[in-house]
Amino acid sequence: MNWLNAENLALIFGGLTALSILLYAILDGYDLGVGITLPMANEPWRDTAIASIGPFWDANETWLVLAVGLLLVAFPAAHSAILHALYLPAALLLLGLILRGVAFDFRAKVKNTRKTRWDYTFKAGSVLATFSQGFMLGIYVMGLEYTAGSIVFASFSGLCVTAAYAMIGNAWLIGKTSGELQLHAIRQCKIAGVLTLSGILAVSAINPLVNVNVLQVWTEPPLAFVFAAIPLLCFAMFVIGYLVLKRLPLPGDAGAWLPFVICNIIFICSFLGLALSFYPYVVPNQLTLYQAASSRESLLIIFWGAVVVIPVIIGYTALAYYAFRGKADGLKYY
Amino acid sequence: MLDTLILSRIQFAANISFHILFPTITIALGWLLFYFKVRFDISKHPVWMRAYRFWVKVFALTFALGVVSGITMSFQFGTNWPGFMESIGNIAGPLLAYEILTAFFLEATMLGIMLFGFHKVPRWAHTLATFLVALGTTFSAFWILVLNSWMQTPAGFEMIDGVAHATDWWAIIFNPSFPYRFVHMLLASALTVCFLVAGISAYRLLKGDNKKAPKLTLKTAILTAAILTPVQVLVGDFHGLNTLEHQPQKIAAMEGIWHTEKGAPLVLFAIPDEATQQNRFAIEIPKLASLILTHDKEGELKGLNEFAGEHPPVVPVFYSFRIMVGIGMLMLLMAWWGSYGLLRKKTLSPLQLKILIGMTFSGWVATLAGWYVTEIGRQPYLVYGVLKTRDAVTTVPGEHVALTLTMYLVLYAVLLVAYIKTLFWLANRAVEAEEYDLTRPGLAETRAEPGNDTRTGAAL
């Protein structure tokens, strides 16, 4: 296994960490998004919206544990540097995740009079967790430094991620619900989509101005021509997505999953855009993947485990999504 | 004064103490639910399903609290203890990675099927999902106890420039204290669940619930506890002998032995005084500590004087150990007394029920006390003999740690109160529910219209 040298292993684990973060953003993104736009005025809608994510949210959050875990075990120096700089926002992220996670279960078990209180907690927790993630991303992009400018940018990034999660969350609801709630989700998805698009445009403009390397990646031929496909695809998806949303709902519920698929492509494009901007750095402008990687022996041990186990995880996750296919209206808590 | 080190220690202790409460329940409760489900599949008797339905709600709530408090843990290493991974990341990393890969995804995904899938998947698949959730929680316990035990009794590695490198993974996983600690923890989980189930069932009975399910769960819990408590006492004894071999200063602190002596007495109670290095107001049984630990009443036990500057603080270890053992003895008494009542008179007296209600969360107290013995007993080391706690701490300003610590403490207090209140509220609601309620799961039980669901209707 000569090709599994330290350098390739660092790259493989960089890829695995990135994949976990991307999967987390998509998967927990949609269930956080459902929380962000939880319709507080309509209790049956809330029940259905929350039922639609019920069987999945636990496993979705596990991708965050895996991402942080992989960063911890494969790039310990980067894990320390990043979380050291993001100490307070990370604490707020955790507060948000804790609140929404428990609210989800408490709402179904407490006295009816207290249910609304936990629904508000669920919504507030979702917003707090999402905003913190966006804020952390913003600080990361700005090189893990706190200046007036970087804090403003990070707050803006927090709003962008909130819009993006709201968009994918409502796209999920369009697929999972029907009737009035579906119409409501279509409206919300449109608004969130417009906000997300403006956010992505702004970040794409600011990022190259702040980071010289980033400008180089996106303007230096010949690779720049290849990379240009990513933003083009991304913006095309926004246009197509808008056209799709305008026509929904169609008879027989055709195309109800299209918005969710389109959101996935947008998430993947945006993520690739960020990943390419920073490669090979894992801590922007300070530490590369190769400098931060753990010893080869340890990475090998995890590598073989991951090769065997990750396909199994993907397999049973697919089974779970298959088991809960279809609309969520009739799905009740057991 | 309160600096980053002590604040980080308190914060980690608070986080992990809060976290461990919930896995301690889910590990054994997962298996108990699997047992209920299998009994239902075999007998088709609805009482097993009612038991399952009630306790699966408790499981779901407990699991959610375990998951969210566990996410906090995965951040703590990087935020507060960067030196931990820098020094022993090559060992801890793969163990944590295997825990996430083999346990977390399995339990989280299967839990979805277990909670929401009763009408979505075939019956065997639902039983299988219940099994896999229980297996996942046990895998999780396996890996995290491997890591914890390795921190107590490190093996299978070499240090190069202050960084640990693995030389023998078999030796790392099956390090000297692991088998004892793993079994001790699984039994602690089982006993915690026995007394939780017994306490809540007793509460339902005392509230006038005359359905079969709470009687059945009470009996299951008490009889299981009657068998497992003495096993736990035995395993605890072996664990202690193992600790004596590898961490004698921890034993010295637990037993309050200040000076090396032959024929050491067993200190039942005392007030250890660190300043004068002696026990005040001691109640002792002569020579018993030597007899238990060396199997010779004149055996020599090393005292704390041999480990100057290298031994843990005595007071917390000494008291925690007595709390753990005390609750263990109380459990033994109640389990046997209760079993006697159930087997001879088929019922428990109101007094016994009340004591059991009082002991609903006794397993939590004993488990925490036990963990404090072993974790504080490892100090001043983080990894015994390899890395000192103070060398691993973050450079984050103390004010930031103080801020987050306050946030966690407030949050945990609120959640703990909400959790306990909700458990008893669920019990109250179960008292009012119909005995043979045939609603589809999840519909409010008060809205029951028997016979409207052919599938469960036929089965029940």
Give a short account of the largest sheet of chain B.
2 strands, antiparallel
- % residues in beta strands of chain A: under 5%
- Ends apart, CA distance between termini of chain A: 48 Å
Query: β content of chain B, as a range?
Result: 5-15%
Structural class of chain A: mainly alpha
Number of beta-strand segments of chain A: 2
Biggest β-sheet: strands ordered side by side in the sheet of chain A: 1-2
Helicity range of the residues of chain A?
A: over 70%
Overall average pLDDT of chain A = 86
State the low-pLDDT regions of chain B, or none. 437-460
- Strand arrangement across the biggest beta sheet of chain B: 1-2
Individual helix count of chain A: 14
How large is the radius of gyration of chain B? 24 Å
What distinguishing features does this structure have?
heterodimer; A: 334 residues; mainly alpha; globular; B: 460 residues; two-stranded antiparallel sheet; 70% helix; disordered C terminus
Q: How would you describe the overall organization of this protein?
A:
- The complex is a heterodimer of chains A (334) and B (460).
- The radius of gyration of chain A is 20 Å and the shape is globular.
- The longest helix of chain A has 32 residues, at 179-210.
- Chain A has a two-stranded antiparallel ribbon with strand order 1-2.
- Chain A has helices at residues 6-36, 43-53, 57-74, 76-85, 87-106, 112-141, 148-176, 179-210, 212-219, 223-227, 229-247, 258-278, 289-292, 296-323, and strands spanning 281-283, 287-288.
- By secondary structure, chain A is an all-alpha fold.
- The mean pLDDT of chain A is 86.
- Chain A is 80% helix and 1% strand.
- Helix content of chain B is 70%, strand content 7%.
- Chain B has a two-stranded antiparallel ribbon. A two-stranded antiparallel ribbon of chain B has the order 3-6. Chain B has a two-stranded antiparallel sheet with strand order 4-5.
- Chain B is mainly α and 460 residues long.
- The longest helix of chain B has 40 residues, at 4-43.
- The model of chain B is unreliable at 437-460 (pLDDT under 50).
- In chain B, a hairpin with a 4-residue loop joins strand 4 (266-273) and strand 5 (278-285).
- Chain B is globular.
- Classes of the chains: A mainly alpha (334), B mainly alpha (460).
- The interface between A and B is large, with 62 and 72 residues.
